[in-house]
Amino acid sequence: MEQIPASLGDGDRARMGARAAETARRLAGQDVAAVALTWVDVSGITRTKTVPVNRLEHAAAWGVGMSPVFDVYLLDDSIVSGRHIGGPVGDLRLHPVIDRVVPMAALPGWAHAPAVRFAQDGAVHPLDARALLYREVVRLGEAGWEAKAAFEIEWAVSAGDGDAFVPAARGPAYGMTRITELSGYLRELLSALAGSGVTVLQLHPEYAAGQFEVSVAAEDPIGAADTAVLVRETVRAVTLRHGMRASFSPKVEADAVGNGGHVHLSLWRRGAVDGPANAMTGGAGPCGMSAHGEAFAAGILRRLPALLAIGAPAVASYLRLVPSHWAGAFACWGPENREAALRFVTGVRGERDEAANLEVKCFDPAANPYLALAALLAAGRDGLAAGRTLPEPVGVDPATLTDDERAARGIAPLPASLGEAVAAFERDDVLRDALGEAVADTVSAVRRGEAELLAGATPEEVAAATRWRH
């Protein structure tokens, strides 16, 4: 994990420039002509500035200019203003992260580099989500812990290039027929991901028409967020090359199952005698968790309503987040329970030391992956500090219980609208303090702006407005 300084000094610039010069020579030898520097805005859209490969050294040392106003863009590219960001005045510098520069096999001649944004005086931008996640990783490390994370990427494939969604594969859910229908496309996708250094664990058809999912290997949280962006842009590029479009929207069609953006997360003790030890197993807590693993999970569970403003950030998110659709619409946890917002993945006997982890099922692909992981780590870290414990696990679909049964077990529905989630976020001092005033205020401004933008829209209109934006 490359260090992100709070402020760039001359030594940092010299070091970053020298490393970029080496990388540029390597890329040129691989026929790479341009490097796309990307960041993800508060609305969850990946934005970019591009430099020719021979300008990578200068970009690494001195950055590429861009406006801070992108932090208050809405999903339709309209702009709101927050107390900290808004208007045409100001400039930031976008610096590529050289450790993560990779040629994009899906876009020959191009490389991808996640970027960190700094002010012109060298101070890190307070709304830079990658730097924010780095800060949370450091805070967790100072307490003796590290985390591993991975995003599941779900998308739906549409035939043709029109704005209407026309499923490009019509076979049954999870059926081999869909692989047969799009075998060439999927084979090229796997090859492109491997060519960009992504370790794919599995690829399969999902429930909705034309829907697929790819799972990748867990890594450190910043790497996991970088990989999520790279995977999505690779999927998008390969899909377009095959004359189709990929939608990562939480709700591609109003009457169909939406795309999830499930987050897998585990807590590991640093400095164990035999290497890092997974706190999600090997203990006397529920489902074999250690006391620390339980506290980490309990911290996340406790803050799920507020976390939705980060992890389910679109109006369309709440068309997806409904009971009995495997979306995790209730604030509860359970081992291998796909209707619980927090599923505990035990792993098979013999592999649990490595595989046991939490799956946050209520998040979706409209989330900024850096911001989502930063908020999850902050919630888990608070649980660790407070020594929280989990309630009894839920082993059924919570929707099948009566209201009285759910109340007796402390099972509450998660917010049913973006407005409800924002209200919960604004009441949550732990998350707001961890993210910082500038981030918290801007998240609220953007979420309220998007809620107002789509106020009164029908579910079909919400789905259409969101379908091709993320």
TrEMBL record:
List where the protein spans the membrane: none
Q: Which UniProt keywords apply?
A: Ligase
Matching Pfam families: Gln-synt_C
**Which residue range or ranges hold the GS catalytic domain?**
129-470
Task: Enumerate the Gene3D superfamilies for this protein.
Answer: Glutamine synthetase, N-terminal domain, Glutamine synthetase/guanido kinase, catalytic domain
Q: Which family does it belong to?
A: Belongs to the glutamine synthetase family.
Tell me which PANTHER family the record gives.
GAMMA-GLUTAMYLPUTRESCINE SYNTHETASE, TYPE-1 GLUTAMINE SYNTHETASE 2
Q: Which protein, by its recorded name, is this? A: Glutamine synthetase
Species for this entry: Actinomadura sediminis
Q: What lineage is on file?
A: Bacteria, Bacillati, Actinomycetota, Actinomycetes, Streptosporangiales
